[in-house]
Inverse folding.
């Protein structure tokens, strides 16, 4: 079984080397050059990176990306958890509700962008009609920096909360019933039951949902591309969008490559930090469980031996 | 249940339904808006907003007639490409992913310092990499290899896109299939290939289906790869829609109608996925060793 064993795993590794590692190295090399489409290749060292630090469009896109990730994932996690808990309490007829909740996630991101562009339109959009009926004047959602940013967050939340809901709901369904019934018999409040039992037991599902969602959030591109195009004045731009415009629209491949490398390094650093934190947390938790078990064993022995 | 607890449950129940209804409205309304927009005249869009068909506007099939008429070839071209790439790349990714997953689950590997877990991590880590990092270089590489805007090129790109996911999902799945079953089959005189065909494959079917549908879903929804790597011959449905919108006033009725078409395959995929996940739960092999 020597040869076949290596053959089995060869294709993914081949893909890894040719379409991930080679392009990565290529992009790093590109980021150290002043290469542009139709131009000559020239080494510029770290000039591109130095330039990035003082490029207001890039720093804004970078800050936006981080904000989208942290604010978006935070809001979507708690919303999704709340919805999962609510749906979990629905005894009958929860399936149509679940399917309705999943609809936004099923919509191709580009269609999401278009639909929300019409939703936000200040002349013929339903949102402005609704607000108008409430006596709130025409809101130019996409023309003012902070409002436009909030609009993208709303769309992102609309689109991705279902994904987190799906994972958390599946997690909730697999929890054992006994601890909850025991706690209820003991007269614990819903609030206490949530923090003492539901939340800790749901932690693996929560971590999976947050990590997967955060990884996707760093790639945010299509919705912004359609709803605002990054505007007004870069207020909603992301690193991917900025990299796309710089590298492929303006043809500055070297400079655009440097942007994408900064994004990659950020994601990698945060991923490593997240994994290390999780490791420490889980080992601390394991120790706590162990201590509890020991205390229980001691108590048990004392009771058993009068 | 006593009278007291029942009274206590009424208010939370009302609050629960209020919250769930609010979210349903938020989640469902944009989808509803897209569907009604696909049946509107341009003036019903631009002078709007109009909400209810037959009440404040008269629905029309104008967009659909355009899709069935002048725009037919363009839309069909995009639809065919999208289907081919999503279905084809998902199939390749699942087959290659299943072999790799089987290997990772059954045999110890050691390439220099890299063992099984490191190899898995290496493969999965590609999924963490933002596509923009690879896609700039991919553009240059595809141009050099003359794969730009070709169907083969896009199938390769989407297989790359999905393979980490299928390897990741299936490795876990293969580990849950008890190796003893294969040993038993071996004792009965089955060769390795026959063992895989008659023992592993049937047991792995739900997992393979789930991985296939997820891959299909992700390729179908992709925009950035198609945007950067296709122009004319290999354009997908999202790119067709993008071209329709590249005008002063986008033709919303048309975009919405194609949007409905574009939503159908992933909806079917999610329905099927749901059923297969249910089946996986019901038929999970007993006596897991992991």
């Amino acid at each position: 079984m020597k040869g076949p064993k290596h053959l089995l795993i060869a294709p993914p590794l081949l893909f890894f080397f040719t379409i991930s590692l080679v392009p990565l190295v290529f992009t790093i090399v590109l980021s150290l050059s002043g290469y542009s489409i139709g131009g000559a290749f020239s080494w510029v060292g770290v000039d591109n990176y130095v330039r990035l630090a003082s490029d207001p469009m890039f720093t804004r896109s970078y800050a936006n990306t981080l904000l989208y990730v942290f604010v978006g994932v935070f809001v979507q996690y708690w919303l999704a958890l709340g919805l999962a808990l609510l749906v979990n309490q629905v005894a009958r007829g929860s399936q149509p509700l679940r399917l309705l909740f999943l609809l936004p996630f099923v919509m191709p991101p580009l269609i999401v962008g278009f639909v929300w562009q019409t939703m936000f339109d200040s002349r013929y959009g339903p949102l402005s009609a609704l607000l108008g009926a409430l006596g709130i004047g025409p809101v130019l959602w996409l023309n003012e920096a902070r409002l436009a940013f909030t609009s993208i967050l709303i769309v992102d939340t609309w689109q991705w909360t279902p994904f987190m809901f799906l994972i958390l709901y599946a997690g909730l369904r697999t929890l054992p019933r006994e601890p909850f019934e025991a706690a209820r018999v003991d007269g614990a409040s819903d609030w206490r039951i949530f923090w003492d039992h539901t939340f800790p037991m749901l932690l693996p599902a929560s971590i999976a949902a947050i990590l997967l969602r955060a990884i996707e959030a760093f790639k945010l591109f299509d919705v912004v591309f359609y709803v605002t195009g990054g505007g007004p004045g870069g207020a909603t731009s992301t690193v991917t969008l900025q990299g796309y415009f710089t590298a492929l629209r303006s043809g500055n491949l070297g400079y655009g490559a440097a942007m994408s490398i900064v994004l990659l390094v950020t994601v990698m650093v945060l991923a490593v930090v997240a994994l290390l934190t999780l490791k420490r947390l889980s080992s601390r938790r394991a120790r706590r469980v162990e201590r509890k078990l020991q205390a229980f064993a001691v108590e048990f022995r004392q009771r058993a031996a009068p | 249940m006593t009278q007291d607890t029942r009274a206590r449950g009424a208010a939370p129940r009302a609050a629960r339904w209020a919250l769930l209804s609010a979210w349903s409205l938020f989640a469902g309304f944009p989808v509803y808006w897209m569907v009604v927009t696909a049946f509107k005249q341009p003036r019903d869009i631009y002078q709007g907003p109009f909400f209810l068909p037959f009440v404040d506007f008269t629905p029309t099939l104008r967009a659909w007639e355009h899709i069935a008429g002048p725009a037919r070839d363009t839309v069909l071209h995009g639809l065919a490409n999208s289907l081919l790439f999503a279905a084809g790349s998902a199939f390749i990714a699942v087959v290659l992913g299943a072999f790799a997953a089987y290997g990772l689950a059954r045999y110890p590997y050691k390439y220099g310092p890299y063992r099984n877990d490191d190899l898995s991590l290496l493969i999965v880590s590609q999924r963490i990499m933002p596509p923009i990092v690879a896609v700039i270089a991919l553009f240059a590489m595809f141009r050099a290899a003359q794969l730009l805007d070709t169907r083969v090129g896009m199938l390769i790109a989407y297989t790359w896109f999905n393979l980490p996911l299928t390897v990741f999902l299936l490795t876990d799945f293969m580990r849950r299939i008890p190796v003893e079953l294969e040993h038993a089959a071996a004792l009965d005189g089955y060769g390795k290939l026959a063992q895989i065909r008659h023992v592993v494959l049937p047991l792995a079917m739900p997992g393979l289906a789930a991985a296939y549908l997820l891959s299909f879903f992700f390729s179908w929804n992709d925009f950035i790869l198609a945007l950067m790597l296709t122009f004319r011959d290999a354009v997908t449905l999202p790119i067709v829609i993008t071209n329709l919108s590249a005008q002063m006033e986008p033709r919303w009725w048309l975009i919405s109608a194609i949007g409905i078409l574009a939503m159908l395959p992933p909806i079917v995929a999610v329905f099927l996925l749901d059923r297969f996940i249910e089946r996986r739960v019901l038929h999970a092999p007993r006596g897991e060793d992991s």
